[in-house]
## 1
Amino acid sequence: MSLDTDISCLRRLPLFGTLPPPRLKLVALMGQKLAFAAGERIIHAGDEPAGVHVVLEGEVEITQEHPEGGGRRITLASGSLLGDVPILCGRRYLGEVTAKTAVSALWLPKDLFFELLETIPDFSLALSRDLASRLYRLADAALHEEKMH
């Protein structure tokens, strides 16, 4: 993809749609473009996050295997962020992230991510809304799972 295509992909994402054009261009230029083949590991459980991955195209799968067998799997699509929660909490990754399909991603270094949060109120608000939405869906799923047992 070209720089213009990367900017266009970012602009379509709610998290980046409110950024002024010069900042959006800066994000696209400062981010590192990455490509992963289906089945390729993107993140290893236990690693410390050094940045955030923005999934521009494709699907990823987060897995966490349990020592006694089994585990959980979550599929995320284009537009998803990977690593924002561990960075904000100062924690390591809990699970493995693997490309479920061919994936195109933009990796934003931790410093750039925090600069966006600190200097652009609309970005901070969009991230807060995104995190709240994910938390709500997680709570809803957990409550419904409890009701089923």
## 2
Amino acid sequence: MEHITLLLTIVVVTALVFDFTNGFHDTANAMATTISTGALKPKTAVAMSAVLNLVGAFLSVEVAKTISKGLVNEEGIQPEVILAALVGAILWNLLTWLVGLPSSSSHALMGGLIGATIASIGVSGVNGGVVVTKVLIPALAAPLVAGLAAMLAARLTYRLDRNAGKKTTEKGYRAGQIASAGLVSLAHGTNDAQKTMGIITLALVAGGVLVPGSNPPVWVIVSAGVAIALGTYLGGWRIIRTMGKGLTDLQPQQGFAAQTSAATVILASSSLGFSLSTTHSCSGAVMGAGLGRKGGVVRWSTATRMFVAWGLTLPAAGLVGAGAEYVARQGDWGVYTVAAFLVASCVAIWLVSRRQVVDHTNVNDVETEPAGVVTTAIAAVAPPPPGSVAAVADEELKTTIPSPAPADPAAPAASATV
């Protein structure tokens, strides 16, 4: 029993570490557009997001039930499996944070849990129907739905205020961005904080502390909410830079449309118990809003790297989770080895990140990405702006017909007599 108690303590602490990384990894979902458009100062934005994440953690436990009672079969799951799953999720979160790619913390957690469960008791331990209906389908649908909604919303906002003054509309939409960013933060708390609640509850059931089918205890809800709020306040500045400036250039109207659309999708999924990726929803909304403005573009090379990271999340976290489970099941020394490996990896990634620091002082400093093939082709066939043809023609004449050489003052004047 003493071994189980120690193991459970390690699992709970590791779960809260994951929750912390989830917070700073996903801060960009709520605040990247608000920071990039100047609606809020960076530190103010992350502080507001942290508070609302904490509040959101207390609003629902439906997603926690999906994690703790639906994704895998509770019978036969040992605390070592939960520890291994968390190791896979934390390392994937930190690696994608290091390279500034917004990937799904939710899918990292579920991938690690699926991989560790399969390594422990086989494929039968995973509820395939739940994985498909509440994980994979929402993963595909969320960015598409949020992106389409954001694109239509952005076009509508530009149409409605086409006759209004620019300064007045931007001021109004910045205020709207603050409200919508708060809504996204609240939605993030109702969805992502619950994932850690669910994983801790599953560990307590596996360790015999709770009976199968139990809801998260109050102390689990409080600790998970505080951990994700602290991580959010730290600010995942690398991913905020990518989401705010790397995917597209947003104006306040687009930022408002993106955040409102994403928040609606996330809150709807939370009420249905879908373990939705807030990253997928917000990233899709940002790209959709980028396309919603006439002349707006999406930097598809950055988007492609992000899509690749999305596709690798489940299998990569699953493989690490399976390997960690194999070591952890060997006994006490295996558990300590996995824990030491996790700590060493976290420290190494942090040291590498110090080589090029990104924080609130330089989060909006982004080098312009070279134009891609599609952008170059569009620019080549697009008609020039009004008034530019004459300017170009005039410039060509100047370069083709040289100006007459100035007269030499020393030369004698030409005689006017015949």
## 3
Amino acid sequence: METLNKKDIENLLPHREPMLLIDKLINIKKLFSATAIVNVKKDSFFVQGHFPGQPVMPGVLIVEAFGQAAAALTAHGLDKETYENKLVYLMNVEKARFRNPVLPDCRLELYIEAVRSHGRVWKYKGEASVNNKKMADAVWSATIVDRK
């Protein structure tokens, strides 16, 4: 199975540090599924203020990481002409459940799957885990739009 490193992901997504959350995309099944790796570190940008003395990765950033992983999976699977000069925007989050806090100095794994696509609209589901323990899950939709 194919793997994308951070540089490969930067070639697909417009996100840059500190907002590029995913470090790697592994186990890629083209336009179907992949696992994103997020290395949650003690020096991650959100640690200082969320929450001082007891840092936790914000749930909204877990959802953002899900979205980035899905966008990278989709961009990687489409032919370059189709994806060139496009962006992927989050449209909605139908369900998001946060089961356990994600603490710094862990490897957060996000298994994502494309549920369906209709034109430029895609629906995904994902599950986040640390050491095989479920931390969160979500269902969301995104759309591919032209860059302005």
